[in-house]
Amino acid sequence: MRGKSPLRSWRRGLPYLLVLLLAGGCSRVPRIIVLEDPLTAAEHVELGVAYERKGELDLARREYERALRMDGKFYRARVNLGNVFLAKKEFGKAREEYLLALELRPGDAEATNNLSWVAILSGEGIEDALARMEGVVSGPGGRRPTLLDTLGVLRMHANRPGEAEEAFALAESLCRRAGAAPREGVNGDAPCPEEVLREIEDHRRELQRRFP
Question: Domain map of the chain by residue range?
Answer without folding.
Answer: 40-106, 125-212
